[in-house]
Description:
Helix content: 40-55%
Amino acid sequence: MKSTLHDIVKLILSFACVTGKCCAFHSIVLGNQQNNRTQRHRTLQSLIENNMPDDNNFRIGYVADVEGHWDYFLEYVHRSNVLYWEEHEGHNNNISTTTTNNCGITFQRLKLRPNTHFVYGGDSVDKGPGDIRLCRALVDLKKQYPDHVHLLVGNRDLNKLRFSSELSDDDMKRPIEDIKRPFWDSKAKSYKEHLEEVKQTHSDCTLDDLNTKTERLRWMLKHTLGCPDTFEFRREEIAYLDKIYGSYPPTCETHESSPVPT
């Protein structure tokens, strides 16, 4: 649909305020507190207005909460009049011909049509086996069109910042007993309770033996981040990508900016 600047600002701000998503535009993070709403409106309006055509006549694409559902995102792009895939034959030729033919895989790069903007409304991961491909496609799109692609940060994206601290070498030295269940979920297990449950199938291991970054991550995802299936979804996607590339992450230096397998 065609839209005015006022329409796009109203749409994005209403969505961000209602859902509590944080707006991240051009590396500027806008808080979602009530008293910052006016400032967010002015900053967002300025960011978009500075990149609009003179006649303010443009098309906008918007989608949110894909949460790793890769097939859903492919269908969205197929129906979109803002986004499209561009096939990269040269990249296809660098991958095993047998693998590509057997799996029906092509490598494509997400592109933006002229005189358009695209807004991703946040929550890119956790509920499907497409987290890696979706994030790579969105980040690459932003790099190609930095002034026309706007990525909002949802809670499922933002809460992964915990990994850098809670899976650090220093934090892994914390006593197991000190890592409590999340206060907001009375049914969740503490980390010690989680390890004791795991120990039932690993009777020859102590709790200290089981206290690994892998097991800490499993506990965080299941009991503190509300995504009990994410670990296995990621295992599934890595196995798929490993089959395509021969190993994952692949050794090619251009991987992060390369087309994604679709």
